[in-house]
Amino acid sequence: MVDAYLKADGEILKTLRRFLGNLLRKGIVDYLLVPQEISHSRTLTQTLVKDPAHLENANPFSPVMPINSAAIVSSLTSDKPKKKLGVVLKPCEIRALVELIKLGQASLDNLVIIGTDCLGTFEVEDYARYIDDMEHTKEKMGERFLIECRQSIVHSDTDYPIPLRPACRICQTITPPLAHIILSQFGSDDGVIIRLENNLAEKLNLEIRESPNHEKQVAQILNRHTALREKVFTEVREKMETVNDFADVLATCTRCYACQSACPICYCRICFFRTETFEPESERYFRWAEKEDALRMPTEILLYHLTRLNHISASCVGCGMCESACSRHLPLTTIFTTVAHDVQKDLQYQPGMSLEDEIPISAFKEPER
């Protein structure tokens, strides 16, 4: 792959929208799945676009992630459509997609992955409130916010305008692990770096140009994330030394299944916890209460989370959508990321980093015991 350069002249999003439009105009893709600003730029949502004219609100560097888009790509590719589909995804979304492909829930056929270097994301509500408070014109809010975040990256002593989600503050994959085209803000002060195959660069008439500062800025961000990540892991392990400690952390959970619904790796069409085993006839509750003298309702909170951890920890990509979806604001990101880190280290497996590496829970290896 080669690095091409797009000079933005202060209008990063306008430049990127023109580039994405050219992918459609030149037939490189037939459709684009791309985040678009809606509700007066107060939030963003993934949109399937056919006509380049409908990219006027596209924002590939979306500062919010209402859903891990791997689940959307799974829906769009599960029956292997013949149309060429370009999908704009963040690194954690690509990693989740890779896991779903290996689990037979998505397909790479006719898929063009357009990965973005990630500045991090904010909770949807926090971002909407910030946009409401901005003094900039409506047309420039997304652009202005992008520039502010970019300045925060370049100058390490500058804080983001609003706090990143917990998952983003400790993320170790801020550049796309696998992508056909990579859009990057790191290493450029006045434009966008696009990494792609040489033949695509020629077809799109892009200027080939090296980016010597890219790796330096990426390393700078990762150093900050790593320091906080190690601190978080230590705190979680100290808080959850026993099963009772774990239960205490989850004390306010109501087993609403929001975390499960938001998780891109939880793909089962019929969940064990939504069968009659965990939704029994009423008489069974009374029998359990008679046996135990007192029965917490809803039941099996701890078992639910332990089963989820057992089910997805090997493939957890740390996107944090579980915590963002939790109405009780449980620290699910730190819990799941800490456990997943230890499990993946023991299994010598990095989820979503390679299509060749088999998922440990789906592959038998004789030495394992």
Describe the structure.
The chain has two domains: 2-229, no CATH class; 232-362, no CATH class. Helix content is 41%, strand content 12%. It is built from 14 helices and eight strands. The chain has helices at 12-25, 70-77, 91-102, 124-133, 141-154, 166-169, 198-203, 214-239, 243-249, 258-262, 282-292, 301-312, 321-325, 332-347, and strands at 2-7, 31-38, 43-49, 85-89, 111-116, 181-184, 191-196, 207-208. Strands 3-2-4-5-6-7-1-8 form an eight-stranded mixed sheet, sandwiched between helices. Strand 4 (85-89), helix 3 (91-102) and strand 5 form a beta-alpha-beta unit. Helix 2 packs across helix 3 and helix 8 packs across helix 14 (332-347). The protein is globular, with a radius of gyration of 22 Å. The model has no long low-confidence stretch (mean pLDDT 88).
SSE topology sketch:
Blueprint: E1 2-7, H1 12-25, E2 31-38, E3 43-49, H2 70-77, E4 85-89, H3 91-102, E5 111-116, H4 124-133, H5 141-154, H6 166-169, E6 181-184, E7 191-196, H7 198-203, E8 207-208, H8 214-239, H9 243-249, H10 258-262, H11 282-292, H12 301-312, H13 321-325, H14 332-347
Parallel strand pairs: 2-4, 4-5, 5-6
Antiparallel strand pairs: 1-7, 1-8, 2-3, 6-7
